[in-house]
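pls design
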């Protein structure tokens, strides 16, 4: 079954897949993706039967919980989203946004994540320094809150997949000889104002970019295939100067 992302995501790779498809390895043992986001690359590779086993992760605990519930409790998530769809309004949105995920069970948390994603401004996921979701209401006339077909295909694609909540090293440390790791970190800003990295309460800084580049070198020296996406800046090109670099175009 053709699977695709069930979430909107700033920096999601759906529109770039046609440019990426020539760069993926044709065969690998296991797939690893430590900055999951919308999972566009995972779903694409799964749809064309390149992935046999996969480990996916993200530091965003709400995102990882959402994937787990779509995988393990799809019917309950659909029921939760049906309630959100029925009650959707601007006032309802802010009521749901104000809820603390810690006070909700896992299914309700997943439903909240999907609902806010589908109805907030531009589908952003942004947390303030206190770790609270702070994206405003989106002005959609008919937001697509519940898409059963997309959720069902995603749930099937995620079967047997290991989902890890935490730092990217929890995924990259598991990679072995002949594995493939796709790394899509928060991008290094191209200017002082283009610095959106607030997917979690903790920022991804230049220090983290340098640490990540070192890990990529270690992985390739261990016989792991690695593909990294990032902004086209002097720092990033310098960090990966030993690697093949390919520019892609996007808006």
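designed seq:
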């Amino acid at each position: 079954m053709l699977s695709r992302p069930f979430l909107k995501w700033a920096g999601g790779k759906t529109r770039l897949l046609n440019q990426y498809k020539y760069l993926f390895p044709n065969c690998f043992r296991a797939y690893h993706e430590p900055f999951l986001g919308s999972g566009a690359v995972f779903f694409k590779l799964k749809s064309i039967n390149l992935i046999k086993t996969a480990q996916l992760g993200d530091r965003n605990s709400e995102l990882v919980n959402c994937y787990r519930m779509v995988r393990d409790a799809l019917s309950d998530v659909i029921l939760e989203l049906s309630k959100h769809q029925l009650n959707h309004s601007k006032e309802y949105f802010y009521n749901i946004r104000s809820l603390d995920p810690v006070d909700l069970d896992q299914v309700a948390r997943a439903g909240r994540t999907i609902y806010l994603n589908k109805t907030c401004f531009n589908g952003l996921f942004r947390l303030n320094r206190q770790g609270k979701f702070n994206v405003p209401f989106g002005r959609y006339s008919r937001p697509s809150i519940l898409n059963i077909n997309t959720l069902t295909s995603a749930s099937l694609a995620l079967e047997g997949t290991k989902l890890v909540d935490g730092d990217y090293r929890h995924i990259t440390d598991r990679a072995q000889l002949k594995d493939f790791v796709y790394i899509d970190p928060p991008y290094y800003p191209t200017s002082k104002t283009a610095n959106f990295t607030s997917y979690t309460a903790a920022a991804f800084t230049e220090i983290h970019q340098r640490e990540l580049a070192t890990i990529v070198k270690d992985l390739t020296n261990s016989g792991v295939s690695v593909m990294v996406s990032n902004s086209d800046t002097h720092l990033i090109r310098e960090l990966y100067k030993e690697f093949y670099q390919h520019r892609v175009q996007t808006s």
